[in-house]
Amino acid sequence: MGASVLPSAAIFGAFFLQFIVLSLHLEPVLGITRHYKFDIKLQNVTRLCHTKSIVLVNGQFPGPRIVAREGDQLLIKVVNHVSNNMSIHWHGIRQLRTGWADGPAYVTQCPIQTGQSYVYNFTITGQRGTLFWHAHISWLRATVHGPFIILPKRGVPYPFPKPHMEVPIIFGEWFNADPEAIISQALQTGGGPNVSDAYTINGLPGPLYNCSAKDTFRLKVKPGKTYLLRLINAALNDELFFSIAKHSLTVVEADALYVKPFETQTILIAPGQTTNVLLKTKPHYPKASFFMTARPYATGLGTFDNSTVAGILEYEQPPNKFHPRSSVEKHPLFKPILPALNDTSFAMKFTNKLRSLNNPQFPANVPQKVDKKFFFTIGLGTSPCKGNQTCQGPNGTMFAASVNNVSFAMPTTALLQAHFSGQSYSIYTTDFPSDPVIPFNYTGTPPNNTMVSNGTKMVVLPFNTSVELVMQDTSILGAESHPLHLHGFNFFVVGQGFGNFDPNKDPKSFNLVDPVERNTVGVPSGGWVAIRFLADNPGVWFMHCHLEVHTSWGLKMAWIVLDGKLPNQKLLPPPADLPKC
């Protein structure tokens, strides 16, 4: 008996050692579970010498940074301590089979009510890069947002030189008034909402605004180093140009997907988009500082915040006996030159430079065949004024916005719950038009009738349907660029152009080899964009303009992707703590 004990122990020990080694090797593949807690509370914040109480996460503005690795599971408990209903969207996370964690209020969940909590439970599958999270109800994302950084699996390098340092830069908008009151008033009067009072970089407006020199983001760098800037546009209503004086930027990623690197002086980034750039600093101390500025790319006829946010790029001064670090020297401060506010030509040229890597490690799996084609018009319109009053929209009407002339009516029950339970009656219909009901000259002289229809209409797609969608801007109430965001998917931008889309001519120039893949794309002002994606994620997925005012006016719709036949092709059941309406 005694002789058999030692070999058994040795075998167990060897097995245990092998298990530990195997576990260490598996850790990068399986990932780990990361826990976060978001406490939603009011807190006083001062900007532009104006103090007000705003809704924040964990008292931070912008909110806390989430950092995870590809393959990690995240459990993020959101506790709502404010009177506003709340929901959080993890923008760009695909949420494979976990649509319950996607976040848009009344689409995938009922909002988290005062005093209630919800744990968002999801796994990051096949994604790495820069994304962000934000509130997805009304205009609360003005202050409730933050970076979401996904690192590659352990041991997997970036497909570009390793940076000396990584720096998130999140653009936002500051309103002296309450954004919730601003949109509430606009929806009541039918007019356009008041614009923001400043743009911000990492929550700070910078020295070009009144009373804000002390509230300036400063990036201190060393000469001869490469920095990875993780750019995020969390502004409510404005696409932005961004540049750093006398420095070029190398674009390496868009919407958490690697791209073929290219150099540029200026970045265009729309709300909902992220862009990673490499900044290579000057080889020697330049005895100068440099503004990094952002201002709007504006194409519509409405008012907008025509101001500029600035941060400062500062070089560390080399210590020596002649120039000790403690000495204060006056150095020139250079300003970059940004494109004109309405430079649509620059916008088109910049977006055309974005191409997928399309290499063996990061292939561009563009759907080569298409099962279903859609043509959506995207633009503004009007709705009749309620009652006998006169509204502040065009000709006494109310501003509206629509997709294929359907202005989306938000339900009072979450669409995903209605779909999953099979209780869609009186909540939504599945007759969203695949094409405009009444074709017209979309970018020419607008029709006399600018009224939109209203409804909670959806498109149903069988699992694994390959989709081609052309989105066409319209000149009704003026041509305008619209950043469209699709939840639950990345898509390939296979083509874009100005004027009306020509179904006979334009598809011949589609890029089906290395188009950029992303989750938010700008529909060009007075033009069109074509995307392709594979409907391989069951659930209900929101698609909307990421200009918050247009979403509020109804420029949104939703897709239902049905379950597949296999167990791993079916939507998971709802969690027990899913909020109730």
Automatic annotation (TrEMBL):
Cofactor note: Binds 4 Cu cations per monomer.
GO biological process: lignin catabolic process
InterPro entries per record: Cu-oxidase-like_N, Cu-oxidase_2nd, Cu-oxidase_C, Cu-oxidase_fam, Cu_oxidase_CS, Cu_oxidase_Cu_BS, Cupredoxin, CuRO_1_LCC
Pfam families on file: Cu-oxidase (PF00394), Cu-oxidase_2 (PF07731), Cu-oxidase_3 (PF07732)
Cofactor: Cu cation
Enzyme class of the recorded protein, top EC level: oxidoreductase
Enzyme Commission code: 1.10.3.2
Transmembrane segments: 6-26
CDD domains: CuRO_1_LCC_plant, CuRO_2_LCC_plant, CuRO_3_LCC_plant
PROSITE patterns xref list: MULTICOPPER_OXIDASE1, MULTICOPPER_OXIDASE2
Entry's Gene Ontology cellular component terms: apoplast
Alphabetized GO MF terms: copper ion binding; hydroquinone:oxygen oxidoreductase activity
Major subcellular site: secreted
Residues in Plastocyanin-like domain copies: 41-153, 166-317, 433-563
Keywords annotated in UniProt: Apoplast, Copper, Glycoprotein, Lignin degradation, Membrane, Metal-binding, Oxidoreductase, Repeat, Secreted, Signal, Transmembrane, Transmembrane helix
Compartment(s) where it occurs, according to its Swiss-Prot or TrEMBL record: Secreted, Extracellular space, Apoplast
Catalytic activity: 4 hydroquinone + O2 = 4 benzosemiquinone + 2 H2O
Job description of the protein: Lignin degradation and detoxification of lignin-derived products.
Family note: Belongs to the multicopper oxidase family.
Name the record gives this protein: Laccase
Organism ancestry: Eukaryota, Viridiplantae, Streptophyta, Embryophyta, Tracheophyta
